[in-house]
């Protein structure tokens, strides 16, 4: 008989082994899925590798795709560690792009050293506004944050839809109404890191943000309160922590990170306000944060992994001849196995000989 | 007398800690056998092995002299072993009957409520248990919920009953009823394993097995032993049950409460017109059965609950309605009764818990970061000073025993408080040795010039420590008495709701 026994203390080696097993199992399950479409499995995986790490250009695309995912992942980490189940990253990404776009209109003409921090701040402020609303709804009116943030997501997504189609920000002039704003002026493009590559300077921000998050979580009083809130809010309340205020700070910090993702997408990638490159970044960030074990450093790796999948997806589709929806399916499968690994890491497998 | 259950050479280790070391134990048919020992002595591990929660690493369990393999609680139940846990496993939204038959039916998928009701009625009548089978569990007071657990075991025809700290949640009256019924069970041939660290309960058993650090120290016939001997065996040294309290003249008034009232969640009055005062060098004891407003009083005093009316003057300043933060900053220390829920973050390390609530204090910060060196240094100092038994300061507080966890709270509150310490049930669930230690610490603070408000369900605590005892009943103070001139029986009567002589309350007015 095989029995699972709960471990008293985590074993680092076993934890690592569980996660390696999760990757292997995830790839195996994906392989089955690929095979079921009739495609050649090695070809598809080969294309995936080539498209994600196969060339400097592929690597650059991976980084560009990973950048917003790491940020929304970090947004998830900050909130979930405090047991605040914010699902608002999606709307906050949109708000970040919208705030950034508004900022770009207002700050146009400023020198770049002022312009870029300024517009990113606009974007983050817009996201923080959303986070603040959810925090107030929770603290003052006991509205569950899952509900409020999901509802706010709809609100923001439809607000953008209106702004772009028929609203003041839509592109006009053509005979066809595109669901997008006019192009930003060249001065509002985030500069490339190397020459004219797609690798914009914004990809550095997620790594900086992750380092700051790691430091905040482990070393600062705020991080202490975030962790404490997740473990035992009642003790914190008894020991003088203002729970409502702390929840607001956490929600707003989380929202700012997610909004930053939207802003760098706008200024670094799309250069115009449109929904289709923002959709799903927030929800994927929840998966990235979870796979990263709700740790900032883990989230960086999970974000890079997902960025690689997204970047390799194009090659996979072209070279491997598989449907585009395979990539979200693979993301889901990976999350599933990582969650299993998270549980498995806390148990030991015991072979038991039945007596009698 | 035949042997119902025997344990031979049982050893159980957890990650390097030997919780049970070569334990021999036998339970005779029809006896109450007490497992007695401090927290962490291995009582719970032993009973968990018998009930199938843990598998012993070595040793055998024999039922009626036949070796048995108990792999799970289900196996244990099949073998006629039942257990009532300290923390009940009941569904509050279910009725008593539903709670008992859910998961215990042996007739397959169909619930046969009528048959179960018949059988339970028979059990209740037989033992004289008065319990409405159709009452919802949430409606029942904690003491009655325990009956549901016991009924469940009886319903399953258990022959051996393990009771884990059964009286922790009971009033003295309720415990008496419990022991009466347990006696009846024994008379009918059941055997009881009673786990406890309370001497009063041990003295109601037939035999006692004393455990210390995972080993059996002795198995004694109860009539041939004394509480003093048992306490000495349990702790491994002599224990003084009465700490010596020096006479100290009370200084200036630190805390004066006047007409304090508070309301509960449903708007019910949980505190009614409470007035008292405590002075420097004084301990005010609060006596009363749990749930008579003590917890609410402490919550209001430390700022966690808002008062509905009344004033709280602390060091000459009106502080009623201030936040916990403001109270802490003014020097009020609070030892809450639910230590793992309100006093500690169990997942945090000992070091992190020592600064809980003071994490933003400049003393423990270096710039924007917390000062790890200062905090671990302080934690080490506290571990030494308060004799906290832990491997080091990085161990999670939740892994420590109740007594050591309590010492963390005491260390933290004593370190940061100035003037007033509020201690609610500081000795609840603790070992004799630790109780003595906590009492000594409280007296030390009193000598230093602190005013202390101390609530305890153990009257011995109050008579040992308090300068004045206020008796609470249903949110009201029945009277404030002087422990030197009042008897335990008189306080007991007031705890049941009779207003007492408030001779001592005259002193309060003049203070």
Automatic annotation (TrEMBL), chain A:
Its main location: membrane. GO terms for cellular component: plasma membrane. GO terms for molecular function: transmembrane transporter activity. It is found in: Cell membrane. Pfam families: BPD_transp_2. The chain crosses the membrane at residues 12-38, 58-80, 92-108, 114-134, 146-164, 201-223, 243-269, 281-306, 326-347. This is ABC transporter permease. It comes from Aminobacter anthyllidis. The lineage of its organism: Bacteria, Pseudomonadati, Pseudomonadota, Alphaproteobacteria, Hyphomicrobiales.
UniProtKB/TrEMBL annotation, chain B:
The keyword ATP-binding applies. The keyword Cell membrane does not apply. GO terms for molecular function: ATP binding; ATP hydrolysis activity. Pfam families: ABC_tran. Keywords: ATP-binding, Nucleotide-binding. InterPro entries: AAA+_ATPase, ABC_carbohydrate_import_ATPase, ABC_transporter-like_ATP-bd, ABC_transporter-like_CS, P-loop_NTPase. Residues 5-238, 255-499 form the ABC transporter domain. It comes from the Bacteria. Belongs to the ABC transporter superfamily. This is ABC transporter ATP-binding protein. It comes from Aminobacter anthyllidis.
């Amino acid at each position: 008989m095989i029995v699972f026994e709960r471990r008293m203390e985590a074993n680092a080696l076993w934890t690592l082994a569980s996660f390696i097993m999760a990757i292997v199992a995830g790839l195996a399950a994906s392989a089955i899925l690929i095979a079921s479409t009739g495609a050649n499995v090695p070809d598809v995986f080969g294309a995936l590798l080539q498209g994600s790490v196969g060339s400097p250009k592929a690597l650059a695309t991976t980084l560009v795709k990973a950048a917003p995912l790491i940020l929304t992942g970090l947004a998830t980490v900050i909130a979930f560690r405090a047991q605040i189940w914010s699902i608002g990253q999606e709307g906050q990404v949109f708000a970040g792009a919208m705030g950034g776009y508004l900022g770009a209109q207002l700050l146009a003409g400023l020198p770049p050293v002022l312009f870029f921090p300024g517009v990113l701040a606009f974007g983050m402020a817009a996201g923080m506004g959303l986070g603040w609303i959810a925090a107030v709804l929770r603290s003052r009116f006991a509205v569950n944050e899952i509900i409020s943030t999901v509802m706010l997501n709809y609100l923001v997504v439809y607000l953008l839809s209106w702004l772009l189609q028929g609203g003041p920000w839509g592109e006009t002039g053509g005979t066809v109404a595109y669901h997008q704003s006019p192009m930003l002026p060249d001065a509002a493009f985030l500069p490339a890191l190397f020459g004219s590559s797609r690798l914009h300077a914004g990809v550095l921000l997620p790594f900086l943000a992750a380092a700051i998050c790691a430091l905040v979580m482990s070393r600062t009083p705020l991080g202490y309160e975030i962790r404490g809130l997740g473990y035992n809010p009642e003790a914190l309340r008894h020991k003088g922590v203002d729970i409502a205020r702390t929840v607001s700070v956490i929600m707003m910090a989380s929202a700012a990170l997610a909004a930053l993702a939207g802003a760098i997408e706008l200024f670094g990638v799309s250069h115009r306000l449109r929904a289709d490159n923002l959709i799903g970044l927030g929800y994927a960030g929840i998966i990235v944060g979870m796979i990263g074990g709700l740790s900032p450093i883990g989230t960086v790796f999970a974000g890079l992994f997902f960025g690689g999948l997204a970047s390799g997806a194009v090659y996979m589709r072209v070279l491997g001849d598989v449907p585009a929806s395979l990539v979200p399916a693979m993301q889901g499968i990976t999350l599933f196995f990582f969650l299993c690994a998270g549980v498995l890491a806390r148990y030991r497998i015991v072979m038991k000989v039945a007596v009698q | 007398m035949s042997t119902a259950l025997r344990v031979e050479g049982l050893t159980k280790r957890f990650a390097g800690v030997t919780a049970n070391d070569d334990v021999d134990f036998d339970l005779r048919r029809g006896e109450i056998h007490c497992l007695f020992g401090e927290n962490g002595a291995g009582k719970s591990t032993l009973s968990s092995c018998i009930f199938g929660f843990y598998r012993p690493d070595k040793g055998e369990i024999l039922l009626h002299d036949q070796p048995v393999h108990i792999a799970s609680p289900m196996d244990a139940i099949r073998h006629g072993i039942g257990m009532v846990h300290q923390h009940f496993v009941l569904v509050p939204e279910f009725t008593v009957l539903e709670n008992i038959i859910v998961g215990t039916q042996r007739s397959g998928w169909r619930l046969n409520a009528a048959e179960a009701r018949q059988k339970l009625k028979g059990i209740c009548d037989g033992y004289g248990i008065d319990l409405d089978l159709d009452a919802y569990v949430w409606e029942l007071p904690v003491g009655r919920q325990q009956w549901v657990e016991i009924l469940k075991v009886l319903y399953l025809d258990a022959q051996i009953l393990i009771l884990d700290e059964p009286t922790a949640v009971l009033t003295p009256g309720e415990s008496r009823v419990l022991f009466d019924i347990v006696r009846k069970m024994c008379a009918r041939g059941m055997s009881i394993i009673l786990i406890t660290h309370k001497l009063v309960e041990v003295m109601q058993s037939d035999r006692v097995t004393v455990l210390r650090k995972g080993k059996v120290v002795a198995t004694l016939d109860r009539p041939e032993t004394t509480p003093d001997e048992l306490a000495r065996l349990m702790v491994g040294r002599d224990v003084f049950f009465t700490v010596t309290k020096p006479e100290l003249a009370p200084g200036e008034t630190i805390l004066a409460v006047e007409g304090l009232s508070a309301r509960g969640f449903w708007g019910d009055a949980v505190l009614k017109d409470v007035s008292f005062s405590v002075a420097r060098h004084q301990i005010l004891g609060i006596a009363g059965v749990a749930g008579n407003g003590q917890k609410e009083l402490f919550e209001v005093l430390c700022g966690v609950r808002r008062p509905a009316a009344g004033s709280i003057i602390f060091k000459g300043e009106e502080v009623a309605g201030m936040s916990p933060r403001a109270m802490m900053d003014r020097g009020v220390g609070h030892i809450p009764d639910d230590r793992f829920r309100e006093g500690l973050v169990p997942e945090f390390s000992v070091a992190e818990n020592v600064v809980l609530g003071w994490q933003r204090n400049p003393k423990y910060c270096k710039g924007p970061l917390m000062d790890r060196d200062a905090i671990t240094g302080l934690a080490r100092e506290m571990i030494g000073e308060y004799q906290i038994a832990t491997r080091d300061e990085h161990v999670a507080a939740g892994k420590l025993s109740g007594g050591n966890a309590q010492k963390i709270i005491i260390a933290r509150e004593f370190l940061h408080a100035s003037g007033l310490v509020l201690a609610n049930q500081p000795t609840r669930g603790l070992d004799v040795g630790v109780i003595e230690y906590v009492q000594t610490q409280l007296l030390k603070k009193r000598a230093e010039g602190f005013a202390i408000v101390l609530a305890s369900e153990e009257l011995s605590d109050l008579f040992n420590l308090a300068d004045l005892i206020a008796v609470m009943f249903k949110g009201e103070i029945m009277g404030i008495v002087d422990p030197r001139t009042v008897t335990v029986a008189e306080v007991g009567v007031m705890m049941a709701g009779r207003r007492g002589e408030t001779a001592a309350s005259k002193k309060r007015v003049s203070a």
